[in-house]
Amino acid sequence: MTHLLMAVNSGMLTGFRAPLATAFIALVISSLLTPLVRNLAIQKGAVDDPKIDNRRVHTEPIPRWGGLAIYAGIVGSILLVMPFAYPKSTMFPTYLIGMMSIAGLLVVVGALDDLHQYKAKVQALVLLAAGVGVQFFYGSIGRVQINTVGVPINGPASYIALGMAAVPLTAVYIFVVTKTMDTIDGVDGLSAGISAISAGTLIVIAVYSGQPRVAIVAAAVAGSALGFLRHNYNPAKIFMGTGGAYVLGFTMACLSIVGALKTAAAVAIFLPILVFGVPIADAFIVITRRLLSGQPITQADKRHLHHTLLGKGLTQRQTVWVLYAAAAALCAVALFVVRNNHV
């Protein structure tokens, strides 16, 4: 592993060598730790019982807490690669320290939720607090905050400053992305695979826009998600749990703010809809259906996209690959748009 890091040290900040090294290290860490986390979850009783309700598609109890391994893969790979990427400058900017610290707290909260099943209002408050809190970690290198919105008006796009509205808007955005990544996690391998595709897209956008730190962290997310996916693909041996969905969604939401939303004004506002298109579309459809049927939007049911595809006769593997393909197509459009707007 040391040889791998040394090999990518030269010319580290150009191209994809640093992100690829980070992704590989994250994949290895996550993959190796997941079986250990699985055993821990079984010992502590953090197991998803399919008899709890009729939404579950698995038939046997499956341990959760995969988020612990995912988080370890992300943080471990960043700690190993950043010193080689930035040997003479700021290795860990304040915003990154804030992101990873709050993500760690979300993993803990998610692990507790897997045991105690907190109410939707409690989860929402936690995620909104995380979205607000991360904005206060900033310095000269980056900040997780949507402080302007690019709007194309009669020709070249211009930026509109949000002022005090930046804090709540950023918090809501982070909440939406994080929560949708959690709600889509209903079929083996779905959330992990979608996360890897979305994070991979953020890597490319970051490299093209000259944001190597964002590319490295996004690669850590993609690699860790893939390492976990090895154990989570159908038939799953472990679920990522609430903590896993939280850390993936929260980290990618923050990265998209620091990276993708800093791209050309004419397209930046549309990028999250494309990069996170499948989970956002799933949430929109589910909420719309619940409202039309007069049900509370927080009431769990079987109206998600994966439930619909399973109801059409598709297997779990066929279902996830249909949704993988949809996510990949939307992300390809995002890359095409970015590339053609001279990011």
Description:
There is one protein chain. The protein is mostly helical. The chain has one domain. Helix content is 66%, strand content 4%. It has 14 helices and four strands. The strands form two sheets. It has a two-stranded antiparallel ribbon with strand order 1-2. It has a two-stranded antiparallel ribbon with strand order 3-4. The relative contact order is 0.15. The N terminus is likely disordered.
What's this entry about, in short?
By secondary structure, this protein is mainly α.
Strand and helix layout:
Elements lengths: L1 H8 L7 H28 L2 E2 L13 E2 L2 H20 L8 H23 L3 H14 L14 E5 L4 E5 L4 H18 L6 H19 L3 H21 L8 H18 L6 H4 L2 H5 L1 H16 L12 H7 L4 H24 L4
Helix pairs in contact: 1-3, 2-3, 2-8, 3-4, 3-8, 3-9, 4-5, 4-9, 5-6, 6-9, 6-12, 7-8, 7-9, 7-14, 8-9
Lateral strand order in the biggest sheet: 1-2
How would you sum up the major sheet? 2 strands, antiparallel
Mean pLDDT: 86
Topology order in helix (H) and strand (E) letters: HHEEHHHEEHHHHHHHHH
Distance between the termini: 33 Å
Number of E-type strands: 4
The figure for the number of domains is: 1
Q: What fraction of the residues are assigned to beta strands by DSSP? A: under 5%
The 3D shape can be described as globular
Q: Helical percent range?
A: 55-70%
Q: Strand pairing plus helix content: what structural class?
A: mainly alpha
- How many separate helices? 14
- Rounded to an integer in angstroms, the radius of gyration calculated over CA atoms is 19 Å
